[in-house]
Design goal:
Elements (H helix, E strand, L loop, with lengths): L2 H11 L3 E3 L11 E3 L6 H4 L7 H14 L14 H39 L20 H11 L3 H7 L6 H34 L8 H24 L3 H6 L9 H26 L11 H26 L35 H25 L7 H26 L4 H25 L2 H15 L1
Antiparallel strand pairs: 1-2
Helix pairs in contact: 4-7, 4-10, 4-14, 7-8, 8-10, 10-11, 10-14, 11-12, 11-14, 12-13, 13-14
Length: 451
């Protein structure tokens, strides 16, 4: 019966009775006649309100908690869409927040690349968790410059070259901006996280991921200082061939890998909230999804090898392509002992490995794109594979241009941004393989071929 008819029936049936108790899941009422209320067993109890008043006061609570007069939430057609809409709105808010945080991390990686390429990373010789304000007077600038002069980079590279306070201000700006941007990302992530947590809008399944991102973000600042400190230590600088101060390539790779990890988790989780994925893999797309995942691993390894190229400053050597100073295998390849050092500390080996990984990644992306041309892919997945092909070719082209021009700042920073762009596209491709409509389309195509 309609709700108002049920309510009228209840009022007529129980107009001489009072409700003594009701459950939250519906009205499990004890109906007590008025004459019984005078007995000693009921004398100490407050007289409950009449039924029609109780119903009016409790209607909103009962509807919100899923029952009214024993009616389940599934039987209330108006309540289910409202609840689903609220959950969807919360998921979208969380998704856009994570995507915005990931975009901030992307910008942070670009600024970090410029900081490295302009040799600005060692201009700030101390680290404070709360940050450091911009110098406001000439006296403060002189104090910062004098402190910088006590460390190896100034003594080895700038002493006696006419490097003055104006030059120092230029390199100080990039390192200061890089550090303060990192702290700003902490606020961009941390404040909404606290808000969503207080409002109870974080699903239990998502809480470990968000907590892990918080820990990784906090540790990234410590890793960054640990990296910078390696370029400030005189003993370590003396061990570098040529004696040119630079940070440890191991620590630089750790710093960049951590940034990639934060970006990957944030972006993939965010787009999954904005466009929900199926829990498992779609059967029709399982082979394609497996290949794209392997491709993501290959692209990630290529990016990490690029971090060692940057850490060893290997891009300033062998500035020819495809040969390396006229040779396929450069002189000095794999000569260090123990053997593992060649993968991380040898300029010819590190650069050759990065070239090989980049070309392999490009060939793999191209082969993947060719293999899916006859597949009835949905529009989103088709767009993802096309974008993957364009991003891969663009990144390799940027890499070659950066190399043959001996790593100018604008090309070097664009190449680093291109690596993260390519990885973003491969993540989006993996995501698109798990969108439900993709599997439905392929299933219909397979059924049509059978018939």
């Amino acid at each position: 019966q309609p709700f108002h008819e049920m309510l009228r029936a209840c009022l007529h049936a129980f107009r001489d009775a009072n409700v003594a108790r009701a459950s939250v899941g519906g009205i499990a009422a004890y109906v007590v006649p008025r004459r019984c209320m005078a007995s000693s067993s009921f004398a100490c109890r407050p007289t409950p309100p009449p039924l029609h008043r109780w119903l009016r006061a409790q209607s909103s609570l009962a509807l919100g908690q899923g029952a009214m007069l024993g009616v389940a939430l599934a039987d209330l057609p108006a309540a289910a869409p409202v609840a689903a809409s609220a959950v969807q709105e919360s998921s979208r808010a969380l998704g856009w927040w994570l995507v915005a945080t990931s975009a901030s991390v992307f910008a942070m990686v670009v600024v970090g690349g410029i900081t490295r390429l302009t040799r600005s990373g060692l201009s700030m010789t101390d680290w404070r968790p709360q940050g450091k304000r911009w110098p406001r007077s000439e006296a403060e600038w002189e104090a910062e410059f004098k402190q910088y002069q006590q460390f190896p980079e100034y003594r080895r590279l700038h002493h006696g070259t006419g490097f003055g306070l104006a030059d120092f201000k230029n390199i100080f700006f990039w390192e200061w901006a890089h550090r303060m941007f990192g702290r700003s990302i902490g606020l961009i992530y941390g404040l909404p996280l606290a808000y969503f947590a207080v409002r109870g809008r974080i699903p239990r399944s998502l809480a470990p991921t968000l907590a892990g991102l918080f820990v990784l973000g906090g540790s990234q600042g410590l890793i960054g200082w640990w990296m910078v400190k390696s370029g400030l230590e005189q003993k370590r600088v003396d061990e570098i061939e040529g004696g040119i101060p630079r940070v440890s390539p191991y620590r630089l790779a750790t710093h960049l890998t951590c940034a990639f990890t934060i970006y990957t988790i944030g972006l993939y989780t965010g787009i999954g909230l904005l466009q929900p994925r199926v829990d498992g893999s779609i059967a029709a797309l399982r082979p394609l999804q497996r290949r794209v995942r392997l491709l993501a691993v290959l692209i990630g390894l290529t990016a990490i090898s690029g971090a060692f190229v940057a850490g060893m400053q290997a891009g300033y050597s062998y500035n020819t392509f495809p040969l390396m100073e006229g040779r396929v295998i450069p002189e000095g390849y794999m000569e260090l002992r123990p053997l593992y050092r060649n993968f991380f500390e040898s300029v010819p080996s590190v650069q050759l490995h990065h070239r090989a990984l980049a070309v392999t990644s490009l060939a793999s992306v191209t082969a993947l794109w060719l293999s899916v041309q006859r597949m009835p892919l949905p529009r989103q997945l088709r767009l993802a594979t096309d974008a993957l092909l364009v991003a891969a070719w663009s990144q390799v082209g940027l890499g070659i241009a950066t190399l043959v021009n001996a790593v100018p700042v604008h090309l070097g920073s664009a190449h680093q941004a291109g690596a993260l762009t390519l990885f973003s596209v491969v993540l989006f491709t993996i995501h698109s393989c798990r969108v439900p409509h993709a599997g439905k389309m392929l299933a219909r195509f397979a059924a049509a071929k059978v018939h």
